[in-house]
Amino acid sequence: MNSGGVHAFSSTLSAFLRLKFLQFFDGKNFINKNDFSIYELPFIRKMLYIFSLVFIHHFSLLILEILKGTIFNRILLFRTIFSSIFTTILCIIYFFFKKN
Fold first, then answer.
1. Which of 65, 96, 69 is nearest to 80 (CA)?
2. Using an 8 Å Cβ cutoff, are 53 and 17 in contact?
3. Cα 61 to chain center, whole Å?
């Protein structure tokens, strides 16, 4: 399955929206800092930030894969939600085990 372009687009879209999500979740604290780190966010904001970006990535990825020829249905939404939750859990586990 040649889906490199689809993954590249989804990753680029997530990277493009990253600053907007950081401003939304951290507010004025983010705007005034030049050396911002995600580790400085409180746990719930960090989790929401990660879930938002993962959800955008998976949703755009699955939309583009479905536009290749299969029929659009509710399975897209379920696949997006479940894969986003699973990926977010993996990211949270990574943050717990990573030491600065």
1. 65
2. yes
3. 11
What angle separates helix 43-66 from helix 4-26, to the nearest 10 degrees? 150
**How far apart, in Å, do the first and last CA atoms of the chain sit?**
38
> Which stretches of the chain drop beneath a pLDDT of 50?
none
Cα-based torsion angle of the residue sequence 19, 20, 24, 28 in order, rounded to the nearest 10 degrees: 60
Residue tagged 């659009």 (tokens): 72
Nearest to 58 by CA among 7, 1, 3: 7
What pLDDT, on a 0 to 100 scale, did the predictor assign at position 100? 56
DSSP summary character for residue 27: T
Q: What is the pTM of this model?
A: 0.71
CA-CA-CA-CA torsion sign (75, 80, 81, 86): positive
Compute how many other C-beta atoms are within 10 angstroms of the C-beta atom of residue 7: 14
Q: Residue 88: how many CB atoms within 10 A of its CB? A: 19
